[in-house]
Amino acid sequence: MNRILHCSLAVAFMLCVLALTSCGDKARFSSSDADKFEQNIYIVPDGVSGAIHLFYTSQKDVYINVNEPVKIQVIYNLNGNVLDADLAATYYKSVLWILDGKKINIPTFRHTFQEPGQYDCILQTINLFGDTLIDTTRIFVDTPSNISLTSPRNGYNQAEPFLEEEIQLQWDITGIDPWETTQCDIYASSNLGKLWLSLQESVPCDKKVSFVGPLLPDENILKEFGINPADTSITFYWGVIMTVLNLNGIQEFDTSDIFKFSTKLINTDSSILNIPIAYKHYRNQVSPDTRITIVNNKGDTLKRIERSDVVSTESIKLPAQTGLTVYMEEFYFTEYKADSFTIDIPEHSVITKDSVFFEDKTPPTVWPIRTEFIQDEPIVFSLLDKGSGIAQSKIEVYFDNAEVAEYSVRNQLLDLTISQRKQMRVYIRVSDHAGNRSAPVFWNISPKKELLVLDGPYMNAEELE
Question: Considering all CA atoms of the chain, what is the largest pairwise distance in Å, rounded to the nearest integer?
Fold first, then answer.
């Protein structure tokens, strides 16, 4: 009887243990069969922090650029509710990413793709029951796209104004990946300021596009507007905006440079050379005295032109020829210099040279008007500059004890006041409006009887170091 009782108690005890164990499992996993544990891959710009799921969405296809750093992160959900990272870690045994030939076992990491192409970003998570969750996001790394105009060449000036001539517009595009398509919008106008408001055509970027003449209306109509095709060329500007679309319809835009072409002159044996001229940092009240000398390839002077504008364009009629040399000189403000250039003049053309800039690259000079001055009178220095002019806000005057000197400027003269009768040095540096500084020098001032005697200048070694 006791033996049967012991057996009954043992069985009851085992049933109790099993019941308690079963209750413990249910408490820990909270009816695991009903719970839905999910993972979502987020690929966002590097530097984004915080709750990224509030601002970004998990996507199966992601498009980024070469060398664009991104943050790759997994966000876990339980029954549709987002879990924070610490709580989520209690629901899985391991996490593993497979990307670009690498294996990574942390929930969040950063990556930069250095080569374009398509990459599979694979995420494998093993939950507490040993089940493996697998998700994949395709990453498309775009090649940088570009569009460049090729024909007609920029500045082409032989377009027929009145004939039915075809001018084919050509361009090159690069960086288009297999998952991308393109569209090109062609803009053209004779008014540069309205170019990007003047859409002419929208085509696939591999389609040929042409302008077909005549480019200008009848000569009689032009005359009504005061336009003579014998001495006037009409310039047309054009450019292309390329739209790049990927499989998700996301668009990127590339804008070409602006090219131009011009009609040629008719009913004339001459061509026209336009020379835009400008003076940099010009602050003088007096107008410049510019001389333009044009010499042919034999050394003969064809034309001499004098002008007095700071900014203007000089238009010169010339017969067609090669090897023409144009010399540019400034005769009054002689520190302004411009390079000469050589150019060819085609027939029936208007040629516009790149802007010619006169520049002042010569430092101003400081020099005493004499070497002896009467005591109690100012010592006077000339401020010599034949270019952009002295910038009075950039005059530096001090003595050898670094004390700032008292001075005034009048009509390119600097009056220096000496309040102490003793041996001293004075340092003077000035700048012109073009940014050129005078040499770092000083003068010795020595009292002798009733005079102050100057000697120098001497180089200031400290400023040369």
Answer: 145
The answer to whether residues 409 and 389 touch, using CB atoms and an 8 Å cutoff, is: no
Is the bond preceding 457 in cis, omega lying within 30 degrees of 0? yes
Q: How many CA atoms lie within 13 A of 183 on its CB side?
A: 10
> Beta strands 166-174 and 92-99: pairing type?
unpaired
CB count in 10 Å sphere of residue 207: 10
Contacts of 82 (CB under 8 A, 6+ apart): 51, 53, 75, 76
CA dist., res. 181 & res. 266, Å (int): 44
Question: What six digits make up the tokens of 94?
Answer: 């391991």
pTM of full prediction above 0.70: no
From residue 96, alpha-carbon distances to 51, 85, 126, 236 in Å are 22, 15, 9, 60
Q: How far apart are CA 64 and CA 99, in angstroms?
A: 15
Q: Which helix (H) or strand (E) holds 187?
A: strand 181-189
3-state secondary structure 60-111: CEEEEECCCCEEEEEEEEECCEECCHHHHHHHEEEEEEEECCEEECCCEEEE
For residue 42 the two structure tokens come to: 């987020």
pLDDT digits (tens, 9 = 90+) for 214-247: 998 888 888 888 888 888 899 999 999 999 998 8
Amino acid 158 reads: Q
Q: How far apart are the first and last CA of the chain?
A: 114
| DSSP per-residue letters across 261-307 | EEEPP-S-SEEEEEEEEEETT---SSPP-EEEEEE-TTS-EEEEEEE
Provide the 3-class DSSP secondary structure of residue 225. Answer: coil
pLDDT of residue 16 exceeding 60, the answer is no
